[in-house]
Amino acid sequence: MLEIKQMEYLKEIVNSDYNLRIASEKLYLSQSALSQFIKKFETQYGIILFQRKKGRIVGLTDSGRKIYEACLKVWDRNDVLVDIIDRERSRQRGTIRFGAHPTLLRLFFTKFIPSFKLENPEAHIEILENGSIRNRENLLSDRLDMAIIVQPTELIEKDFEEYPLVRTEVVAFLNPHHPLEKKRILTWEDLRGYPIVTYGKDDLLNVLINDKMAEENIDLNIIYTSDSWDYLIEGAVATDIIALLPTVYFPMYMKRLEHLGIVEKSIVNPILYIPTLVRPVKERYTHFESFFFDSIVEYFYLDNNSLKYDFLE
C-alpha cells in the first residue's frame, strides 16, 4: 500500500512533467532514490505506472492515471486531517489564533497584546498578519478564532459576533509640492491620471477603492500595492504618487507625516474604513478566548459604550 510520502513522490513526478531530476530536487531526494521508488512499486504490485519512450518516462498509463487520481483524493483528505490535528492541538494548549492587518496591529495593539500576555502567561497568542479578505477566509475555514475584518463583513449575523473597533475614512496622502496640494479638499475626479498606491488585494480597501472608481466612472492608475502603510506613504515623498489609505489622528502618526513632509487631503464622498472585531458564535469558548475577546472590546470602548477611536465625529 502506498504511504503518504510515496504519494508525494508520485504527485511531484507528475507536477514536474515527468522530469525525475526536477522532481527529486523539489523532494530533496536523490534521482536514483526516486527511480528506485518507481521500480519497486511496479515490481511489487505488478502494475506499470508510467509510459516510457527510449527509457524515459513520458506520462502515466491508464492504470497509473487512476492510481494518481486516487492518491490526490487521499492527499487532500490527509491535508484536512493534519489541519484538524493542528487546530485541536492549538485549542488544547489554550492558543488564541488572532488575525489582523499589520498596520492595525502597529497602531492599536503594540501595548495591548504584550500587556495581555504578561498578565496572562498561560495564554498562547498566535497572530496572523493578513488583509481583511484573507482574515475573513481564515475565519470561515476555522483557521482563526477571531479576526479584525473591515466592513462590510458580509457575514451571516446569527453566526458571527461583531464589534466595530475604529471608524475612519480613506484620504489622499501626497507631497507638499504635488499639483493637488493647493486644493483644500479633493474629489475622486481629481485623482484621475495620477499614479496611485494602496493596500493589496487581500485587504478590503483595495476592493472598496475599485468599487468607488466604478461608481464614479474613473479609471485609477494603481501602480503598486503593499501591506505596509509606511512604505506606501514614503513612496509619495518625492513623487507625484498619491497614497490612498485610512487615516488616524494619533500624535505618533501626525509626527510621522510631518517628519516625511507628507500632507493629507480629505476626499468628497469618502470611503469609510471600519475595522471590526469578529468571532464565530459558539456554544462554548475557552477561558482565554472569551477573556481575550472581551478584553479587546473593553480596550476599544468607553464606559458609555461609544468608540474610543472614532475619527469620523
Please, could you describe this protein's structure?
By secondary structure, the chain is an alpha/beta fold. The strands form 3 sheets. Strands 7, 8, 9, 10, 11, 12 and 14 form a 7-stranded mixed β-sheet that branches. The radius of gyration is 26 Å and the shape is extended. The chain starts with a helix and ends with a strand.
Main β-sheet, in a few words? 7 strands, mixed
Would you list the SSEs in sequence order as H and E? HHHEEHEHHEHEEEEHEHEHEEEHE
**Nearest-angstrom radius of gyration?**
26 Å
Distance between the termini: 66 Å
User: Which percent range fits the helix content?
Assistant: 40-55%
- Principal-axes geometry comes out as extended
Regions with little confidence, pLDDT below 50 for 5+ residues: none
Number of distinct beta strands: 14
Strand content: 15-25%
Q: Structural class, judged by helices and strands?
A: alpha/beta
Averaging pLDDT over every residue, what do you get?
87
Tally of DSSP helical segments: 11
List the helices and strands and how they pair.
Blueprint (H helix, E strand, L loop, with lengths): L3 H12 L4 H7 L4 H15 L4 E4 L2 E5 L1 H31 L2 E6 L1 H7 L3 H8 L4 E6 L2 H9 L5 E5 L9 E5 L1 E9 L20 E4 L5 H13 L4 E5 L3 H6 L7 E5 L4 H10 L2 E3 L6 E2 L1 E6 L6 H14 L8 E2 L3
Parallel strand pairs: 3-4, 3-5, 7-14, 8-9, 8-10
Antiparallel strand pairs: 1-2, 5-13, 6-13, 7-10, 7-11, 7-12
